[in-house]
């Protein structure tokens, strides 16, 4: 006898999949260039070339049995270590490998999170509008999905309706920010209030209530948008992540569960996920893809964007060339992008920085060759809250020093102007005395300043 449950679901097929099939049929009839398909979340940009390069390297250099064999139930250890280090560094939360479980995309991560903290008959609350597949994801676990109506003015959380829906059976709240389909990003104010409401509910009902945070669009935010990390505001948060959007890899099905280490049962939940896998036939994602994303999270990889004022300025050209040459020598995994010039238009520089961050998921850092571009880029980074990007500037002034103290600028490269003037005058006097003066560039050298030696810079 076939399952009546899944037979009944055939009458409630995925609208997204049906729209995609209809769009494909239309494309065959009138040409795919004439069809705008907003159904499946397939990215409109290809995966970064670095993804292809890493996969090729792994296939050529990694021992085949380990590359194509099963990983252990939690995922490959070195992959979990790198993801934990990345999250700890990016969000200042002390994740370790013990908090990470590798999954087949965000959907696989959610499947584990639901089963880990929600029992059949208990309730999960989410907010309209929402990704429609949440319904079968949740209801097939035996849990009950409750939907808070949308605040159609702001599309932030409708707290009045939400608080009325919380009951003793509430086990988890499912949020998705940036949101599919509205595109809204929950503000710091919204997340902080959500945390306060749930903390009171936990106390009132005497049991834990989890936030399950679905975050496949985490990096896709525009300049100036307040995009807080949910886990920083609420201990009982389980992050579910996918590389489908950030690396344009939806078909590879690779992601992870990250349990906030401050969560009450953090030590248990990741281990429980391995047992959940046994029950749903998950049994670890592809080893090749795990190793690929780990390589892309490497400390010395990714792209570095370079910003300068004038392509004709000798000082700009020399600084750029020195930086690029040194990167190639010391950090061959870094790709220095083509220089972007702003030609004395600081608004243009800000736009260039913002567009570069948005368009490059694997962007690792910024290099600005003077104080003007550094200040413009710094103001953009403040609004983006991109703590993971390394930012190196050239020159120094009080505003740049302030950005370094606030953690936006990581390092400043500074030439000694007095030494440059001294050497120049010395050579001029030699010439006036009739002495032979070599026709070479005056190089006073350059010093790197970070928070470790910033006191020297301020003297």
Q: Would you kindly provide a written description of the structure presented here, covering whatever features stand out?
A:
There is one protein chain. The protein is an alpha/beta fold and 459 residues long. 43% of the residues lie in helices and 15% in strands. Strands 1-7-6-5-4-2-3 form a 7-stranded mixed beta sheet, with helices on both faces. Helix 7 links the parallel strand 2 (123-127) and strand 3. The protein starts with a helix and ends with a helix.
What is Rg? 26 Å
Q: What form results from the Cα inertia axes?
A: elongated
Low-confidence stretches: none
Helix content: 40-55%
Termini gap: 82 Å
Number of helices: 17
The major beta sheet can be summarized as: 7 strands, mixed
SSE layout:
Elements (H helix, E strand, L loop, with lengths): L3 H6 L5 H16 L18 H13 L2 H5 L8 H15 L8 E4 L1 H13 L5 E5 L6 H6 L4 E5 L10 H7 L4 E7 L11 H18 L4 E5 L22 E6 L12 E5 L6 H15 L6 H10 L5 E7 L5 H17 L3 E3 L3 E2 L4 H14 L3 E6 L2 H14 L5 E5 L3 H8 L5 E5 L1 H16 L13 E4 L4 H5 L1
Helix pairs in contact: 3-11, 5-11, 6-10, 13-14
Descriptors for this entry?
14 strands; seven-stranded mixed beta sheet; elongated; 459 residues; single chain; alpha/beta; 17 helices
């Amino acid at each position: 006898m076939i399952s009546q449950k899944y037979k009944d679901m055939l009458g409630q097929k995925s609208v997204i999949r049906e729209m995609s099939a209809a769009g494909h049929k239309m494309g065959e009839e009138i040409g795919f260039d004439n069809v705008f398909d907003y159904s499946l979340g397939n990215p409109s940009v290809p995966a970064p070339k670095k993804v292809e390069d890493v996969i090729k390297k792994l296939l050529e250099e990694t021992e085949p049995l380990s590359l194509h064999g099963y990983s252990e139930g939690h995922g490959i250890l070195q992959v979990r270590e790198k993801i934990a280090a990345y999250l700890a560094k990016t969000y200042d939360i002390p994740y370790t490998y013990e908090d990470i479980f590798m999954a087949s995309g965000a959907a696989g991560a959610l499947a584990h999170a639901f089963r880990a903290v929600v029992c059949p008959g208990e309730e999960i609350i989410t907010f309209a509008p929402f990704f429609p597949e949440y319904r079968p994801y949740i209801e097939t676990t035996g849990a009950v999905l409750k939907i808070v109506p949308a605040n159609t003015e702001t599309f932030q959380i409708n707290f009045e309706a939400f608080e009325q829906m919380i009951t003793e059976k509430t086990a988890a709240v499912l949020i998705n920010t940036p949101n599919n389909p509205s595109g809204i990003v929950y503000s710091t104010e919204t997340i902080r209030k959500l945390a306060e409401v749930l903390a009171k509910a936990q106390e009132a009902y005497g049991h834990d209530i989890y936030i399950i945070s679905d975050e496949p669009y985490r990096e896709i935010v525009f300049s100036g948008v307040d995009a807080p990390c949910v886990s920083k505001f609420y201990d009982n948060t389980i992050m579910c992540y996918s590389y489908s959007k950030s690396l344009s890899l939806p078909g590879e099905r690779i992601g992870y569960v990250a349990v906030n280490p401050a969560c009450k049962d953090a030590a248990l939940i990741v281990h429980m996920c391995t047992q959940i896998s046994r029950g749903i036939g998950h049994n670890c994602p592809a080893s090749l893809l795990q190793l690929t994303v780990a390589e892309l999270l490497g400390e010395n990889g990714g792209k570095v964007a370079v910003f300068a004022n004038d392509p004709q300025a000798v000082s700009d050209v020399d600084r750029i060339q020195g930086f690029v040459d040194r990167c190639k020598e010391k950090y061959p995994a870094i790709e220095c992008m083509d220089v972007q010039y702003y030609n004395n238009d600081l608004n243009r520089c800000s736009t260039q920085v913002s567009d570069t961050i948005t368009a490059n998921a694997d962007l690792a850092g910024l290099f600005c060759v003077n104080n003007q571009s550094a200040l413009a880029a710094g103001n953009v980074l403040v609004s983006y809250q991109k703590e993971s990007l390394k930012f190196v500037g050239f020159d120094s002034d009080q505003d740049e020093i302030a950005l370094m103290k606030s953690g936006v600028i990581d390092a400043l490269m500074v030439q000694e102007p007095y030494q440059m003037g001294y050497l120049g005058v010395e050579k001029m006097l030699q010439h006036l005395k009739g002495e032979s003066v070599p026709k070479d560039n005056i190089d006073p050298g350059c010093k790197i300043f970070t928070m470790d030696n910033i006191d020297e810079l301020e003297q």
